[in-house]
């Protein structure tokens, strides 16, 4: 509005500011259906263009009780209009949204937003999510409190939009820089494990990469244990056959 009033006279903005403020407070708001002036004072002040007298319904009420009732009614109407507009916004925002029900104790992935985790999102190649983290409190259907490591230095309360349920050890979040970018995958490549590979003791928070590494170690240890058991079983049979052959 100020730009429309000034046009090319940019140096006069300070002189035009009171007039713009008056016009804004006198204009009808799209949500409340009345002007800010009318909400506070119960009527709209006259403007230079108002040469005709005000209608009777908009004149100032001289009776105190009648004026008080009028203000209360006006505030109630304004509140109803705001609630209707908020409901429209809520319906538009929930359109097509899938409801996710999480409970305390569930594990979730956390989306690392740049505004809350600037140190963890310095580069496009850095992970966009971390976890899984445990839910310790459900504030409401849209807000949850997580058990975060102390080095995060952020509030542990997050919106449902930043959370994704952890589905198990096979669950992995997309880690590409962009879904449409072929190649350039920055996922961790699982290392090759042998029997002589020592077990790595993890310290710090359980991140996505560490969870994958632990799961891979567990699977390799189970596989090595099975193969070792088969070899021992075969070795025992061979020893028995050799002993029987010698005795004969």
Automatic annotation (TrEMBL):
Tf2-1-like SH3-like domain: residues covered: 105-166
Highest taxon of the lineage: Eukaryota
Pfam families linked to this entry: SH3_Tf2-1
Annotated region described as Disordered, given as residue ranges: 169-202, 215-248
Record's signal peptide: none
SUPFAM superfamilies tied to this protein: Ribonuclease H-like (SSF53098)
Molecular function terms, GO-annotated: nucleic acid binding
PANTHER family assigned to the protein according to its UniProt record, in alphabetical order: RNA-DIRECTED DNA POLYMERASE, ZINC KNUCKLE (CCHC-TYPE) FAMILY PROTEIN
Full protein name: Tf2-1-like SH3-like domain-containing protein
């Amino acid at each position: 509005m100020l730009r429309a009033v000034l046009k090319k006279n940019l140096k006069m903005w300070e002189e035009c500011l009171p007039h713009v403020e008056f016009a804004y407070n006198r204009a009808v708001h799209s949500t409340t259906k009345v002007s800010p002036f009318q909400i506070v004072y119960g009527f709209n002040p006259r403007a230079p263009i108002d040469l005709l007298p005000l209608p009777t319904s908009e004149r100032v009420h001289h009776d105190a009780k009648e004026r008080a009732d009028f203000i209360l009614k006006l505030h109630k109407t304004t509140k109803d209009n705001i609630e209707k507009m908020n409901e429209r916004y809520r319906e538009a925002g929930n359109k097509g949204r899938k409801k996710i029900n999480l409970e305390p104790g569930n594990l979730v992935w956390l989306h690392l937003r740049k505004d809350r985790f600037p140190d963890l999102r310095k580069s496009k190649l850095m992970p966009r999510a971390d976890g899984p983290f445990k839910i310790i409190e459900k504030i409401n259907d849209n807000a949850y409190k997580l058990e975060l490591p102390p080095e995060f230095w952020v509030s542990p309360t997050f919106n449902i939009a930043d959370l994704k349920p952890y589905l198990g050890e096979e669950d992995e979040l997309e880690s590409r820089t962009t879904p449409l970018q072929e190649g350039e995958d920055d996922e961790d490549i699982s290392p090759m494990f042998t029997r002589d590979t020592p077990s790595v003791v993890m310290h710090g928070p359980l991140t996505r990469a560490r969870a994958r590494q632990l799961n891979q170690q567990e699977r390799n240890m189970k596989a090595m244990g099975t193969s070792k058991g088969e070899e021992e079983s075969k070795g025992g049979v061979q020893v028995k056959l050799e002993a029987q052959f010698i005795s004969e």
